[in-house]
Amino acid sequence: MWLDRTGQAEAFDAIGDRYDEAFPHKEGQVASAAWLVESLPPGARVLDLGCGTGLPTSRQLAEAGLQVIGVDLSERMVALAHKYVPTGVFHQADIADLRPGGPRDLGRFDAVTAFFSLLMLPRAEIPLALRTIHHLLPPDGLFALSMVEADVDDFSIPFIGSTIRVSGYLREELREVVEEAGFEIVEESSYSYAPASADVPPEVQIFLRCRRPA
């Protein structure tokens, strides 16, 4: 059962360019994308799930010679990604659309990124989303994930002049959910992050570098 997404896409349509202004420093995200660049051969297919404006991840991957396909729920974000990463291919779609037997088949990928995109789902959907990502990867495929550490489920918060609903886990629980979906966690890191926007509170960001075992 995939739940109601009403309001989430509209919020990010409204935020548009201000998102990158509110989150100007993304060291953890850049480092995880660099891990993919170092680990993948030129031309490898990478899915940027919840690509947003395409900055910095889709652009970083594309500039490194990887084939980037981005997916985002927000029409405005997809339009910006086309603008900022002209060599990428971007689709307005929900991760639920990509599930086995779902309405969108974008093929398989050598790697998937999900930087702060799964936290937009209710907790009940996150294991399903992780299994979808597992399905999209071959054996030994790579998966770079980030979440905000928080013990919340579908919780409404003010966000850059809009309202969004977010979910999160404490660190150990996040590891358990990821491993139960069939992934091996290769490396973990965390960052304390204070966004530039006054109405977005400081947060602890967890980055997991994972692989689908052979």
Number of strands: 9
* Largest sheet composition: 7 strands, mixed
Terminal CA distance: 29 Å
Rg, nearest Å = 16 Å
| Helix/strand/pairing category | alpha/beta
Strand content: 25-35%
Q: What would you call the shape?
A: globular
Overall pLDDT confidence? 88
Extract low-pLDDT stretches.
Answer: none
Write a concise synopsis of the structure shown.
With 214 residues, the chain is α/β, with parallel strands linked by helices. The protein has helices at 8-15, 18-22, 27-39, 57-63, 75-84, 126-136, 171-180, and strands at residues 45-49, 67-72, 89-92, 111-115, 142-148, 155-159, 162-166, 184-193, 203-211.
What do you see in this structure?
The chain has helices at residues 8-15, 18-22, 27-39, 57-63, 75-84, 126-136, 171-180; strands spanning 45-49, 67-72, 89-92, 111-115, 142-148, 155-159, 162-166, 184-193, 203-211. It has 214 residues and is of the alpha/beta class. It has a seven-stranded mixed β-sheet, with helices on both faces. It has a two-stranded antiparallel sheet with strand order 6-7. It is globular and about 40 Å long.
